[in-house]
Design brief:
Strand order of the largest sheet: 3-2-1-4-5-6-7-8
CATH class of the largest domain: Alpha Beta
Largest sheet: 8 strands, mixed
Radius of gyration: 24 Å
Distance between the termini: 60 Å
Oligomer: single chain
Strand content: 5-15%
Number of helices: 12
Structural class: alpha/beta
Amino acid sequence: MSEGSASFSVVGAGRVGTSLALALVRTGFRCASIVARQTTTRAVLRRRLLRSDILKSISDLKDNFQFVIIAVRDGEIRSVADLLGANRNIEWRDKIVFHTSGVVELDALDKLKARGANIGAFHPLAPFASKFASQKARSIFYDFAGDKKSLRLARELAHRLESRLFVLKSERERTMLHVASVLASNFTVIAARTSEEMAAGIIGSGNSKSVIDRLLSDTVDNIFSKKGYEALTGPLARGDINVIQKHLRILENDPPLLQFYKSSALLGIESLLKTNLQNARDSRLIRIKKLLEDK
């Protein structure tokens, strides 16, 4: 496989599956087939993967690939793997099977392992908001867990995709890294959209998006240019208990948002208290922490 000419199949034509398939083809791997449920997705794939079999069902897979990527929803991985393992038309010995989940255990692929396949999890640490976004699968980070043969291939895939691979040692490490990724990516979206909705009732939806987008952009710039919590601004950075009291009062009638605010602020305070701060600021933060915990 070192020449990049190995053939692969993909089961699952969602955001990750289509993007990864197109990215791998561009690096020199050959896509033998891809299983896609949706008619519209199959039509697009036929135009973009002219030399690949675009299939409707797992049962249509031929034994013409060296590795397969299962890129379906987490809750479907085990059942898809079981269906693949039950396919007697495919010789699984020495083939490699990856799933792309960051949290689903490797034992979800046990039926394929029992047929002689090498198994692993090859998970992209990236936000795929659209299908067919091959650029999103390149120059990113991936995490991996699995056996030695699948690791060799995972390293090659990451290299071809100009990406870095993290080899994880346990299911706990995999889950913790996934949580960290969700906090950074998904929760940022939730915070941004919630902020827009709050501001829209005051300055209008168009203006609120412009304001929040600019705040986000400047905040990201600060994160990239500053160290640690030096990028933090506002009442927490100043230790301004009066402002935070006002915030808590105005959020009293919205329990979910109040809890989100308090939890986020407490996490920030815990981290700030671990840094080298002036004693006066420490005392203000301790007062704010007590206020948040008592509310």
